[in-house]
Specification:
7 helices; four-stranded antiparallel beta sheet; single chain; nine-stranded mixed beta sheet; alpha+beta; 309 residues
């Protein structure tokens, strides 16, 4: 769809077009100003009475931060494809002189004429004038985004313990183990199966879980995916067999690992939407669709940012 003005461009992003001509661009500008500094208050369509007269001034967007209150004026001349003129800057300067507002920003979708830029610069030199900064906010092009990464896809190889093929062998006095088994009815050659995860102190209280020791040994597996070695204890440690404590001298372990691939573990695909440039060169940004979709336009005119970029 070919847009002839910024209201139609607003519609392609947010899915609706405001009824009043120019409102879409005003809202886009307000959204950009909120994204540039989420801590400042941005309100769309503010009516304010003059200090020295009863004139009512319609302010496209009013920005308040801890340093200043700023009058935002928006000009969308995309249909006629003409830059914003000096007269627009002068009109804003006249309004500022009659308002309890610190400064102004004139925003254009098509750029500025040289006389407009010169007049803006004069407001920064004139001690009796309030400063007016010029901003260009327009749709982005492919050339604007050269060298900028807008898409990201990360696959994850997750390494976990292969419990089925791993083994941990507690080394104990085999003769003492055989004596305990014999007293409990086992005969030579019979298999004794036991499941335990607990290693005990001499008083029968817990020393550590075997799984805890094993997990500590899987931080840096070898190249072939196996962690192997011996673990020695810092005090006497026991296993319980039929209620009797048998000292464990060490653990011999061979921990095998397996890798599970998680495709598209992180997937971000964004789209450049707007170019933002200030005349003084302090701001030169690309605003994306993902950022704009985190903006909320409230019914009272306030503009909020509800996301993370």
């Amino acid at each position: 769809m070919l847009q002839t003005n910024m209201d139609e461009y607003f519609e392609t992003i947010f899915g609706y077009k405001p009824k009043k001509r120019g409102t879409g661009y005003e809202l886009l500008v307000g959204a950009v100003l909120k994204l540039l500094n989420a801590t400042q208050d941005v309100t769309h369509n503010v009516i304010q009475e003059g200090k020295y007269s009863k004139d009512k001034y319609q302010i496209d967007a009013l920005v308040k931060n801890k340093f200043a209150t700023i009058f935002i004026e928006c000009k969308d001349y995309t249909e006629r494809n003409k830059p914003t003129q000096r007269a627009d800057v002068q009109k804003l300067a006249g309004a500022l002189n009659n308002l309890d507002i610190n400064a102004g920003i004139l925003v254009s979708a098509t750029g500025f004429t040289k006389p407009a830029v010169q007049y803006s610069e004069s407001t920064k030199l004139n001690p009796n004038a309030k400063e007016i900064e010029l901003f260009l906010i327009r749709p982005s092009t492919e050339k604007d985004t050269e060298g900028i990464m807008l898409s990201l896809c990360v696959s994850l190889d997750l390494e976990t313990i292969d419990h089925e093929n791993s083994k941990v062998i507690p080394i104990m006095d085999i003769e003492k183990v055989q004596e305990i088994l014999k007293r409990n009815g086992y005969k030579a050659g019979e298999q004794y199966n036991a499941i335990t995860n607990r290693l005990l102190k001499s008083d029968g209280t817990l020393y550590k879980y075997i799984s805890e020791i094993v997990n500590d040994k899987t931080i840096n597996p070898s190249v072939n995916g196996i962690s192997s070695g011996e673990f020695y204890f810092d005090e006497d440690v026991f296993a319980c067999i039929y209620g009797e404590l048998i000292q464990v001298d060490k653990l011999v372990y061979e921990i095998r690992h397996k890798v599970k691939n998680i495709p598209e573990f992180i997937k971000i695909k964004d789209k450049a939407v707007l170019v933002v440039k200030s005349q003084d060169g302090q701001i030169d940004r690309i605003i994306t669709e993902r950022q704009l979709k985190s903006i909320v336009f409230n019914s009272d005119g306030t503009i909020d940012y509800k996301g993370r970029y």
